[in-house]
Amino acid sequence: MVRSRARSGLQTLTRKAFGRRVRHPRRAKWSSIGRRNRARTVATRRRAARFGTRSEYTNHYDLASSLLEMARDKLDGLDIHDSALGRVDLLFELLRELNLNTPDHVTVYVTALHSDFERRPLAEQVIDQVLSEESSRYALFERIRMLDVPALSLTNSDVVRWSQSDAIGQFMSLWIEYEKLIRNYAASKGAGGQGIPSIRILRLVDDVPPDVQESAERLRRFRNQLVHGIEVPDADYIRGQATELGHLVKRVEQIIGPKQKEKSKRRPANKASS
């Protein structure tokens, strides 16, 4: 009780001196992410109301036209060219297989788009969000890509392709575990929700060594190459990356785990003090 009064008195003095409550910079960042997530939810609802309810997209050209219109609306009228779209045909097949092939569903994913289309085309950004919602979707998307004959080499034997597919499965299983770990931590900070890159969340965590951040960024780029790239790397190379990803997961668990335990211990103490 005394601690609570002292803390309240300190906050009152702080407000009188500075006109507002001073917050820890890192806590302010987590709160900022939480506010942006709530703002995205409101924006999504407004966009859904504006574009209204309509039937399914009939083909990927229909989807491309709608995606461009929604992206321009979200990015304040930015002049987005067709070249920024990326593989809308693959996105169309993925959405159709998951029964998400309507504007009402797509507008949810448009909310988290960014404008760096040279690095990440529109279709890739939406595909990544769809995949991150459920781990089983990675396998589905891989099957869709396998049917896209021009994108995958047909000179490889079936044995080599199956070996690559098995290695990809190992890597993606670990990636799903890694993303779940990161997003659960973000949710515990009140910054949950889709569309926040895992590397951005990791940078907000205290005491993460530079080599861990570098490894996370390198593996994120490899994951994007694996999911969206035209050429499939050698199976042994993919397994090597999976091994490095396994080490990353363990190190992040060692960093994040104690912080979550500390937070769970503090809650009963706060209730007792009041």
Describe the protein.
It is a single chain. This protein has 274 residues and is an all-alpha fold. It is 72% helix and 0% strand. The protein has two domains: 44-133, no CATH class; 151-262, Four Helix Bundle (Hemerythrin (Met), subunit A). The radius of gyration is 22 Å and the shape is globular. The N and C termini lie close together (5 Å).
Précis, in short:
The protein is mainly α. 72% of the residues lie in helices and 0% in strands.
Number of strands: 0
Structural class: mainly alpha
How many domains? 2
What would the average pLDDT be, to the nearest integer? 75
Query: So, CATH architecture of the largest domain?
Result: Up-down Bundle
Q: Sheet with the most strands?
A: none
Helix content: over 70%
| CA gyration radius, whole angstroms | 22 Å
SSE order and pairing:
Blueprint: H1 2-18, H2 25-51, H3 60-74, H4 88-97, H5 103-110, H6 122-133, H7 136-147, H8 158-188, H9 198-203, H10 210-228, H11 235-273
Helix pairs in contact: 2-5, 3-4, 3-5, 4-6, 4-7, 6-7, 8-11, 10-11
How would you describe this structure in keywords?
274 residues, mainly alpha, Four Helix Bundle (Hemerythrin (Met), subunit A), 2 domains, 72% helix
